[in-house]
Protein: EamA family transporter
Amino acid sequence: MKSGSNKTKLILALCLVYVLWGSTYLGVKIVTEVLPPFFLSIVRFIFAGSIMLAIGFAVEKEMPTRRQWRNAAWIGVLLIGMGNSSVALALKYMPSGLVALFIAALPAWFIGLDWLFFSREKPKPLTLWGLVLGFVGLFCIFDPFYLVHPDTVVRNYPLWPILVLTAGSIAWSFGSLLSPRLDTPRQLTSSGIQMLSGVVCSVMLSAALEHDQWEAFNAMTTRTWTAIAYLVVFGSLVGYTAYSWLVNNAPARLSATYAYVNPVVALILGWIFLGETLNTHAFIGSAIVIAGVVLMTVRKK
Structure:
């Protein structure tokens, strides 16, 4: 019975992370029409972290030790402070499709870092083939170097954010792998501490790189507030909690498959709600991504 219950939780957590985090691309796109990206992170995670911490104290009824506070804060800096912030910074300078492609390389970092520093388990051939296939599918979807339509656009963005994205991806993957190996508070309390710790990094980055944040805040509309509410409730409170459960209870390479599925979900939602075009190579790429995820997850207990 316990095995069946864990399997149900695993499937539910994966579905939540796949769909909810894929939908946050749409929410972030709406909010960043008004707010700068780092300031958005501050607003989003102050609300989400405070609510999550209050719920954790009320439900779990345990006060973390000083060591647990420190460990949870460290995970929050790696995941939210460094991981999320690197994506926000890259989106400011580079096309979102190219950024999504680099984010999709997360499973490779998960598998590589897990092999080198944690489980020492050598990846199976099916996992490696799934990894390659998923990346090829996303490359086909976003066509970041305009190979399908070479005459459409000339590159007009810097390449240095790739280094920032790489560092952020390593931080996110390392934090995810480290989380189950540290003494942290219980699930909800730990998630709240992680979110609030990540806000500290966002505050510093916003102060250094963004301007007129409060003027933008005063310009927020009902549409913007609705998108922020969605990001707080579904992207952070529900989605981040599901992801935290995954990294503590599921194989690392299985948890990492969300990085392949999220862009596909975002693509479909953009087509439905924003009228964005879905062309033939996007459909083909999506099918290739799904095939890659199947290979990466097959025969996993």
The chain has a mean pLDDT of 82. Residues 36 and 212 are 9 Å apart (CA to CA). The two ends are 15 Å apart (CA to CA). Residues 2-297 form one domain.
